[in-house]
Amino acid sequence: MKISQRAEQLEPSVTLVAAAKAKALKAQGLDILSLTVGEPDFATPENIQEAAIKAIKNGNASYYTPTAGIPELRQAIVSYLQENYGLTYKTTQTIVTDGAKFALYTLFQAILDAGDEVIIPVPYWVSYGEQVKLAQGTPIFVNCKESNHFKVTVDQLEEAYSSRTKAIIINSPSNPTGMIYTKEELTEIGNWAVEKDILIIADDIYGRLVYNGNEFTPIATISEAIRKQTIIINGVSKTYAMTGWRIGYAVGDETIIQTMVDIASQSTSNPTAVSQYAAVEALLGEQDTVEEMRVAFENRLNKFYPLIEALPGVRIEKPQGAFYLFPNVKETIAICGYENVTDWVDDLLEEAQVALITGEGFGSDEHVRISYATNLGILEEAVDRIAAFIERKRKA
Ligand SMILES: *Cc1c(COP(=O)(O)O)cnc(C)c1O
After folding, report:
1. Fold of 5-43+289-395
2. Which CATH number fits domain 46-284: 3.40.50.300, 3.40.50.10540, 1.25.40.10, 3.40.640.10?
3. What band does 24 get if pLDDT is binned at 50, 70 and 90?
4. The Aminotransferase class I/classII large domain covers which part of the protein (predicted)?
5. Distance, first Cα to last Cα, the chain
6. Three-class HEC string of 128-178
7. DSSP run (H or E) holding 335
């Protein structure tokens, strides 16, 4: 049986593929240090676990829920946005989804006709382009300059714009670069999108994971006009160490959200009930553990970053948020006698048992993505191995 053309074109998620490969080698007994996957290494906080157990015991978790999510969780999302950012929405402007990833997927299905274009700044999160293509849209990739902290400018957007442009994605703090857009930059981009009547897709999933005094501004808070033009994508995975629970959400224009609900009603029916009850506690319960995890990431960043920066040939600017480093290793791989970053990453795994992710999945052939969502001992050992690998290759 021949598979569909759109499925044939699909690239599987490089991050999940790399993480799976590292895991498989580990299972064979190899001593692999994996800095691949983008998820907190902490356990879900106790109060959230308890809320889930309670929902199971009292029977709440047994049944289908409304497709858009349980009313308590939609209300919790509204309260969360109001209290944290002063953003006012109605519950009918919210949808709970199977992770933020599925919020994005449903959104593209809801807004794109064949050939509609979505502007995606590069480097990008691996799934944006593939999801746009699955909705028969056309991703328009805009290369952001490293000298501009990997951030897109209005001039570049102007150049990428066409009569088919439907939306632009802003992911701040960014996966993979960790950079954060300033209020001024967001104002310019937001005003431009309003003027052109383009939807702003704000992937705010790392908004609570910012370090060393840097600040995150949700683009929806800039002005009322920009808020109306924006769909916020967020979820509990990264902030609350809940990747396995699969709860995300989208907030914004009621018609778009309702369309997403209709699509979800024919695809997933509803996000897992027990996870929704847990997510209510995550958003409304005590937030001390969130701060503890943030501080732990910050400490790792501050200790790990200088070690990576000191590796031969590496060029990098210190990230402001998320939990990744995205160093330029063009020079490093040249020192090692490589022309291709993916080959270098492959050999690093084979020969030094350190798993990183090639920048190619994020739109760059000069970078690697390194996740520091793992303990400092592993990070330090990984740096030692990478340094030794470079030294061996340099001499070879
Ligand atoms: C992890 C991630 C998501 C998806 O998270 P879910 O686990 O599906 O909620 C979305 N966007 C970015 C940039 C991410 O890194």
Report:
1. Aspartate Aminotransferase, domain 1 (3.90.1150)
2. 3.40.640.10
3. confident
4. 31-386
5. 48
6. HHHHHHHCCCEEEEEECCHHHCCCCCHHHHHHHCCCCEEEEEEECCCCCCC
7. helix 330-335
Distance CA(257)–CA(250), nearest Å, equals 7
Residue 243 Cβ contacting ligand 1 at under 6 Å:
yes
- pLDDT of 15 higher than 90: no
Q: How many CB atoms sit inside 10 A of residue 164's CB? A: 14
| pLDDT given at position 41 | 92
Residue from 125, 245, 326 whose mutation best tests the ligand 1 pocket (most atoms within 8 A of CB): 125
Question: What pLDDT sits at residue 17?
Answer: 80
Q: What is the model's pTM?
A: 0.96
pLDDT digits (tens, 9 = 90+) for 287-324: 999 999 999 999 999 999 999 999 999 999 999 999 99
Helix (H, G, I), strand (E, B) or coil at 117: strand
Residue 90 to residues 20, 35, 77, 262, Cα–Cα distance (Å): 40, 40, 10, 18
Give yes or no for residue 172 CB within 6 A of ligand 1.
Answer: no
Q: What is the pLDDT of residues 181-197, one digit of tens each?
A: 999 999 999 999 999 99
Is there an atom of ligand 1 within 6 Å of 99 CB?
yes
pLDDT digits (tens, 9 = 90+) for 135-159: 999 999 999 999 999 999 999 999 9
Where in the chain are the domains?
Answer: 5-43+289-395, 46-284
